[in-house]
Each structure stands twice: as structure tokens, then as C-alpha cells.
Amino acid sequence: MKNIYIGLLVFILSVAWVWSDSSIEPLEEGQVFFPKQGLTLQVELAKTKKQRALGLMYRPSLALNKGMLFEFEQEAIQRVWMKSTLIQLDIIFLSEQKEIVSIIKNLQPCSQKECGVYSSKRKAKYMLEINAGMIMNNGIRIGQKVSF
Q1: Domain range enclosing 14
Q2: What is the helix (H) or strand (E) element at residue 7, kind and residue range?
Q3: Which H or E run includes 107?
Q4: Is residue 143 part of a domain?
Q5: CB-based burial of residue 140 (10 Å sphere; 0-12 exposed, 13-18 middle, 19+ buried)?
Q6: What is the DSSP letter of 148?
Q7: How many CB atoms lie within 10 A of CB 97?
Q8: What is the Cα–Cα distance from 141 to 9, expressed in whole angstroms?
Q9: What is the rounded distance in angstroms from the CA atom of residue 134 to the CA atom of residue 50?
Q10: pLDDT tens digits for 46-96?
Q11: For 8-21, how does the pLDDT look when each residue is reduced to its tens digit (9 = 90+)?
Q12: I need a labelling partner for 23 at 20 to 30 A (CA). Which of 39, 54, 118, 142 fits?
């Protein structure tokens, strides 16, 4: 339990750091391809701490077949929260080898002061945020590989 609080504190401090700096870096764009489904998603790439901390916060919508791919410095248990996120999301965690290692479906927006923190079940190097329902509607499963 202590590790969760420490992780949450680090995350909150990261978000505060982003908000204190008015210069937000532009996001690169790319694609994530799911071979089994023949599905290609257009994604924004969140590679820096600032970009990851802001993520999809404050956006009123996310277009169909769009998403955000987060790249972390190292493979580890990754955490996400829905603070100030206005849209429902599905989350896909990917290993360094781009294999789906964990999935969280239908996360709800959170506008409260305190929001839940959700973690990958296994170590991940990448996290993909997409519209809620895409995992179920496309039959995306743990163990599948993607390319980007």
C-alpha cells in the first residue's frame, strides 16, 4: 500500500510540474497496427515526462481510430489515472517487444479531487489509450503483438 501512495505522489508532482511550465512540447504522430484485426490507429506519441503527464487530459473527444501512445524510459509496472480526462478510455499496456501484456477496459472520466490509479498487471514499456469499447469491438487480446 505504501508503494501505491509513493507512486501516486510522484505522479501528482509530475502533473504539477507540467502545469507550472506553460511551454508544452508538440506531439509527434505515428501509427499502431494490429495485424490480427487488420486495424491501424493514428496516434499521438507521448515520449517525454511532460507529454505523458498531460496525456489526453481536457480533451472533449477522441476521433475514431485515434489514440495516444505513451513511451516510458523503462519497462515497469505502469500506472494511469483519469484525472481531468473527459472521455472514456480503453488502455492497452505493451511490453518492449510490443506484445499486449495488460488491458483495462472502459475507464470512466474523473473530475473529482481524488481519482483512482490503475496499474498494468505486468511490466510494460508502452501504454496505448484509445476510445472505450475498441478493445471489445475489435477482439483485442492479451498476448497479441502490434507494430508501430
Answers
A1: 2-138
A2: helix 2-20
A3: strand 100-107
A4: no
A5: buried
A6: -
A7: 9
A8: 31
A9: 26
A10: 999 999 999 999 999 999 999 999 999 999 999 998 989 999 999 999 999
A11: 444 444 444 444 44
A12: 118
Q: What is the DSSP letter of 108?
A: P
Cβ atoms of 132 and 90 within 8 Å: the answer is: yes
pTM score of the predicted model: 0.82
Query: In terms of DSSP H, where are the helices of 22-64?
Result: 49-54
Give, in degrees to the nearest 5, the angle at Cα 50 between 94 and 123.
20
Number of domains in the chain: 1
Whether 148 is in a domain gets the answer: no
Within-domain flag for 144: no
Task: Give the CA radius of gyration of the chain.
Answer: 15
- Each residue of 91-141: pLDDT tens digit? 999 999 999 999 999 999 998 888 999 999 999 999 999 999 999 999 999
Residue 93: which CATH number?
2.60.120.1140
Confidence at residue 19, expressed as pLDDT on a 0 to 100 scale: 45
Tell whether 49 is covered by a domain. yes
